[in-house]
Amino acid sequence: MRLIKSRVFRNIVAVGTGAAAGQAVTFAFAPLITRLYSPESFGLQGIFLSLVSMLSPLIALRYPMAIVIARDYDEAKCITRLSLIIAAAIVGLLVLVLAFYGSNLLRLLGAQGLGSLIWFLPITLFCVALQDVSDYRAARLGAFRFVGGVTVAQALLTNLARLLGGMIAPVAAVLVIVSAIAPAIQSTMLYIGLREHRISARRFSLREALAILQKHRDFALFRAPTDLMNAFAQTAPVILLSILFSPATAGLYALARSVVNLPLNIIGSAVGVVYYSRLAEMSRDGQVLLPMVLRATFAQFLIPGGGLLVVSFAFPAVFAVMFGETWRPAGEFAQWMALWVVGMLANIPSVRALPVIGAQWIHLVFNVIIMFGGLSGMMTGYWLHGTALAAVSGYSIATAALYALQILSYLQVIARHDRIH
User: Fold this and answer.
1) Backbone phi, then psi, for 294, in 5-degree steps?
2) pTM of whole model > 0.85?
3) Cα separation of 35 and 39, whole Å?
């Protein structure tokens, strides 16, 4: 009863309800959308989104996360401005890279079908930076219920656009363009909805701004490359399956990942944002963090994780009924992928504690290990059996084992921090 009445629990429910409703909207549209677009179209969208996911941690060097732990509103506002300036500079560099090497990049990824759609990549990445700034500003303000509502509205608008676009022209271009503007829709709604919270903030001198960047440099030095490794580890299978087999195989994997990630997208985002905010408060008040992190870790593993593992046994049949018989192999992929998603569900609380205690370096080390371990598992499965399912199962088993080791190590780091402080 005490847990249910707590502010943290209410905030988790507020964000989680919105995320769940948003995912429900996406899932409701999926049977219609998968019958309009081919696996190859989904594969090209999957490759595009993989590039977005891999580059997103670098676009503002993860400085938007520092908005939550900023000393005061003035500092938070300065971090917001600096984040967008950094994002604009990096987008400019990306445009130059695409101008000179874009065609070679597409050829390397086996995604020549994207063609000129690759130019939506820098646009999308800047929109992601805008969304990150808006999300963490909302978290600092505690506007979790509003964030939940925006999540639902964005899911409805983007999936409606995919459906209507597919009825007119069921091609990869529609999926890519809608995916490109989705972050802009969410950031715009958050900006408009939180405008009453805007107050004037003082301008910082260049020296003061550089001092703020220096103060929060661990986000650029450790969190950005860590999240890059994590994103690469999760999205590289899409690219590898396209190279080793075909964009259609990558499309099957992309759909499987979107479905099996539902618990992660719903509960993970809720727990991650809320607990990050709460752990930052507890740290400022000098409280120990391990008990809360332990409770959240076990809850994540037993409830959503256990539920996902049970449901995964029915994935092949469910995929065939929901999306059409063509997508049954995606359900077979999803059965194996459930293993590492459970690990990601369980590690969220401990991962969110690391920036609070200033230990983000260990997350970088582990994500490098997980990335190479997962890809080694995928290639081992491919070399042994030569099938896409073997490659996916090898990746999943290796990654799940490494997530278990990661969680145990992070809990030890948090316990050590509590003893010292």
Assistant:
1) -65, -50
2) no
3) 10
Tell me the CA distances in angstroms from 317 to 24, 26, 28, 146, 335, one per residue in order: 19, 20, 17, 37, 11
* pLDDT for residue 315: 92
Q: Please, which residues have CB within 8 angstroms of residue 248's CB and are 6 or more apart in sequence?
A: 38, 39, 40, 43
- pLDDT tens, 348-371? 888 888 888 888 788 888 888 988
